Amino acid sequence: MRLSVRLFASLRERAGREQLVLEGVPAGTDVAGAKRLLEARHPELGPLQSVRGVIGTSYVPDATPLAEGEELALLPPVSGGSPAGDDAALARGVFELWADALDAGAAQRRVEHPSCGAVVLFVGNARERNRARDVVGLDYEAFPAMAESEMACIFEECRARIAGDDERHALRMLVLHRTGAVAVGEPAVVVAVASPHRDAAFQAARFLIDELKARVPLWKKEHYADGHHWIDERP
To answer: What does residue 151 show for φ and ψ, rounded to 5 degrees?
Structure first.
């Protein structure tokens, strides 16, 4: 059978293109088998054990069987739309990818509400040194549809874990993330959370940034004077 494979970030760079087509894939091949075929036919990709498979906008286990003509997206380990500021959307959680500079103050104002006595704002800036090297700039790449889908799951988990049905812990959540080039000192991510009380706001902000960094398909490339490196890239 024929299988289309979409590549992102460091995998796309290694392959020199964003899509590969595998011909003659045995019927019944699963995601793990497709990764083994890719390692054999495209050794420039390197080991793919830590790479996750996505079909549509959902992560799938390595044991998931693949069908003729299906597109499999391969996402290397992650590094970390238009404004929607209405009350219902913020209560569910709003996630936006921005190609332009982020305004942390504007994000804070969007979540503020007379019912909320606490607002917690987290801003992650591009730092000038990492991995014992001087950083001259960053690039962020996203898989937008998957990022939005995964972030929606994180918002839902955050509400269930922290707010539940208790109005005293109601949350208004906004997460903004840059894509493209980010200069040293500029914000790369902003998390703004408002709640009637501070405990819920602090817990939610920490949960959102931690889960975003661990699960959302956003990749960071650090640039140095003599080269670059994809963060969390496996050797």
So the answer is: -70, -35
**CA-closest candidate to residue 136, choices 36, 227, 8, 6:** 227
Task: Identify whether the C-beta of residue 77 lies closer than 8 Å to the C-beta of residue 231.
Answer: no
148: left (phi over 0), alpha (psi -120 to 50) or beta: alpha
Q: Are residues 93 and 184 in the same domain?
A: yes
Reduced to 3 states (helix: H, G, I; strand: E, B; else coil), residue 9 is helix
87 neighbors 174 (Cβ within 8 angstroms): no
Q: Which of 138, 146, 148, 202 is nearest to 175 (CA)?
A: 148
Give the DSSP letter of residue 163.
I
Q: Which residues contact 27 (CB under 8 A, 6 or more apart)?
A: 1, 68
Each residue of 101-160: pLDDT tens digit?
Answer: 999 999 999 999 999 999 999 999 999 999 899 999 999 999 998 999 999 999 999 999
End residue of a domain, out of 19, 47, 75: 75
Q: How far apart are CA 100 and CA 98, in angstroms?
A: 5
If we measure between CA atoms, which residue out of 233, 214, 212, 213 comes closest to residue 222?
233
Structure tokens at 42: 């495209």
Dist. CA 174–CA 164, nearest whole Å: 18
pTM exceeds 0.85 = no
Phi, psi at 32, each rounded to 5°: -60, -40
Residue 82 lies in a domain: no
